[in-house]
Amino acid sequence: MESRPNKQTAARRAMPFASAAFQLSKDSDLVADWEEKLQIMAEVVKNPEFDKILRDPKITPPKLRKVIKAVTDKLEMNDEQAEFIGILVDERKLSLMPWIYDGFLKAKKQDSGLTDVLIITAKEITEEQVNNITTALNKKFNIKAAPTTKIDPELLGGVKIVINDNHVIDQSIKGQLERMKRHLNKPPAP
C-alpha cells in the first residue's frame, strides 16, 4: 500500500526520479517519447479508481507490477521506460507520478536554458505586453524566459512576476499597499 503523498513534500520527493527520467530520456534521445508516456502515466495515477488500487493494502508491489505491466504494454513503453515505472512501483513511489512528470518538464526547460516565469496581473494582458515583460526580464536577469500568465483580480492593478518559483517581483497595487502598511506600522526609530 502506498501512502498518499503530502503535496508540500511530493515535488521534492519526486525530483530525483524526475531528474533520472529526464537523463534517461536524453541519453536515449527519446525526450518527446518519455514526456508523452510520463504524462499519460501521471493521468493514470490521478484516476480515482487507480488511486484505490494504490491504497489497497492487499495489492503488493509484485501484484501492482502485473497491473502496471498491462499499462506499460498498452503504452508501448520500451524496456527502460517500463523498468523505470517498475522501480517506482517497487519503491512505492508511483503515487508521485504527477510530480515526477512536472519535474521532468522543469528539467527539460532547464536543459534547454529556459526559465519559468509566471506573470500575474489583475486583468488579461495582450501578447505584446507579455513579450515586452519577457524581453525586459531576459535582459535584466540574463535568462531565456518561458512565460505563463495568470489573472488575480485581488492584485487590483500592476503586475507580479515569479521567476523559477522563488524570485518574486511585486509591482502590483496590492503589493505596494501592503508595503506601505508595513512601513506605516513600524515603530519610530529612537
What attributes does this structure have?
single chain, 190 residues, 4-stranded mixed β-sheet, 60% helix, elongated
- Give the fraction of residues assigned to helices: 55-70%
- Strand percentage lies at 5-15%
Structural class, from secondary structure content? alpha+beta
List the total number of helices. 8
Biggest pleated sheet: 4 strands, mixed
SSE order, one letter for each helix or strand: HHHHHHEHEEEH
Terminal residue distance: 61 Å
- Report the average pLDDT across residues: 90
Gyration radius, in Å? 21 Å
Low-confidence stretches: none
Number of strands: 4
Shape category = elongated
- Please list the strands of the largest sheet in the order they lie side by side: 2-1-3-4
Q: What would your notes on this structure say?
A:
The structure is a single chain. The protein is α+β, with helices and mostly antiparallel strands. It has eight helices and four strands. The protein has helices spanning about 5-25, 30-45, 50-55, 60-75, 80-90, 95-110, 125-140, 175-185; strands at about 115-120, 145-150, 160-165, 165-170. A four-stranded mixed beta sheet has the order 2-1-3-4, with helices on both faces. A hairpin with a 3-residue loop joins strand 3 (about 160-165) and strand 4 (about 165-170). Helix 1 packs antiparallel against helix 2 and helix 4 packs antiparallel against helix 5 (about 80-90). The model has no long low-confidence stretch (mean pLDDT about 90).
